[in-house]
Amino acid sequence: xxxxxxxxxxxxxxxxxxxxxxxxxxxxxxxxxxxxxxxxxxxxxxxxxxxxxxxxxxxxxxxxxxxxxxxxxxxxxxxxxxxxxxxxxxxxxxxxxxxxxxxxxxx
Length: 107
Known about the structure:
87% helix, rod-shaped
């Protein structure tokens, strides 16, 4: 009986070993392919990401520049209005002297 138990133990261990080897044989090529793919595509993906980030940075800087230019044009437009020019020439007396008739676009 002891020989039978020993052979049963050995056959179970052998079956477990075979199962592990088969699993390893199935997974190992996948891991090798994954590592090879990672090594081959890493530089390309990094370059592509850098180009995308550079393009995004240029787009955002252009949008900010356009926004600031538009705001500067608004300030220049407001600076040329008569009411603003009058305020800058005499700010102390302007608060009491403003009427709707002195504002050209509201008359």
